[in-house]
Amino acid sequence: MKAAPQSALLARLEHLLGAGGVLTAESDTAPLLTDQRELYRGKAVAVALPDTAPRVAAVLALCNETGVAVVPQGGNTGYCGGATPDESGAQLLVSLRRLNRIRAVDALNYSLVAEAGCVLADVQRAAEEADRFFPLSLGSEGTCQIGGNLSTNAGGLHVLRYGMMRDLVLGLEVALADGRLLSALTTLRKDNTGYDIKSLFLGAEGTLGIITAASLKLYPRMSAAATAFAAIRDPRAAVQLLARLREASGERVSAFELIPRLAVELTTRHIPGVRDPLDAPHAWYVLCELTSARPDRLDTILTESLEQALGAGLVADAALARNEGERAGFWKLRETIPEAQRRDGASLKHDVAVPVAAIAQFIERAGEWVRANVPDGRLIAYGHVGDGNLHFNLNQAPGADRAAFLARGEAIKRVIHDMVVREFGGSFSAEHGIGRLKVGELERYAPPVELDLMRAIKRAFDPNGILNPGKVLR
Ligand SMILES: Cc1cc2nc3c(=O)[nH]c(=O)nc-3n(C[C@H](O)[C@H](O)[C@H](O)COP(=O)(O)OP(=O)(O)OC[C@H]3O[C@@H](n4cnc5c(N)ncnc54)[C@H](O)[C@@H]3O)c2cc1C
Asked: Is residue 32 a contact partner of residue 76, using CB atoms and an 8 Å limit?
């Protein structure tokens, strides 16, 4: 392996990818060289835009031969800097956006084959057109891509019923570091033939190969939904209400999101069109949704459950969506929380998970610590409470000094992550991955044996270390 002069590399890339397949002008590349949260600003030798899986593999073969590091990029909506090249200017960014065909939809087999650069919302639409449902749903679904979703093992709104991206995959096609193409686009539900190699690429954040296509599981299309925005007594009541709803609906709860008052205040202030669904303010809310493929009595089930919860003191008030517009309004409030946080000022984010039953105790303990120790920050803990996943975020308080607030980020993170992992047996990265941001955290908290195995796998898949170096593992 030897480093290639840039001009020779660019000439070979252009030969492989044709006109329009390689970007070098700053005006084209600049938007791709900063991550979603603007934590990192990288440089790249160029941006490659392969439009077929064999071309992705050929780019990797070239980079492996010439010792050029490769950073795969999907929609660039990731929160951990995984899709941003480093500052050296020597890495090649490989954008998958031209690899965006739906190759097959098989309604009878409840499966679909999509290329890695398909935008998630387009995959959802393709499923719907076949009278089917693809359940992965995230606030970024209009931009993020299937390859990015697979590589971060994305979670989102429907995990409590359908699982994470890992649970929605049947097979993969992957370009390997040495330029071979692994074709395992099976649509089988059962296949116990040795090690499950595909699962290693899920959540690997581009460090073991570049995913070029995936066969995905589909479900019956939903034809009924009942959605409520309910004020609850406290986070403990949320967990109890969830348990009641699961029982009453026969496992038809498809989303159950915890929302604090501050999230309602920030979204109604910063996002046009968002309004508070309830008349009076409350400290905590849940947005819950039941769905069914049949025209069931979901509204009745949800109303009765909420009335009983009101009687039991778990719920203080609730609004049931009366039409699609109101339902969309509730969801807009939930999905624009990250954007409202961004517009409000600096924020410190912690994507943590604890066992569902411990979530209230965690919020109490960690919330108490924040109130006592971070006077210049306001807690905005929200998220997928049905999976025990909280975005335990702090926003800069009004009038607080931005730089001073951000400077305390490391120390605050240490306390929160230590509490999550060591006291609650939880995770410091529930759904956003490691990227560049949390490499040190993985080293701190992962058992040494697990880290050894991860490093051995990395060496086996990428002996020359060209695939997204410095991400996940150092
Ligand atoms: C408003 C908003 C809401 C969000 N909500 C959620 C949420 O609810 N749940 C959640 O899990 N995440 C959420 N995210 C984070 C983000 O959208 C997800 O992590 C998403 O899966 C990233 O997809 P992407 O295509 O943007 O990937 P990118 O950001 O482009 O890349 C992410 C990582 O995957 C690698 N990668 C990308 N494509 C490939 C490929 N084809 N092969 C190999 N590696 C690849 C990159 O190198 C990088 O390491 C949210 C983000 C935003 C902005």
From this structure: yes
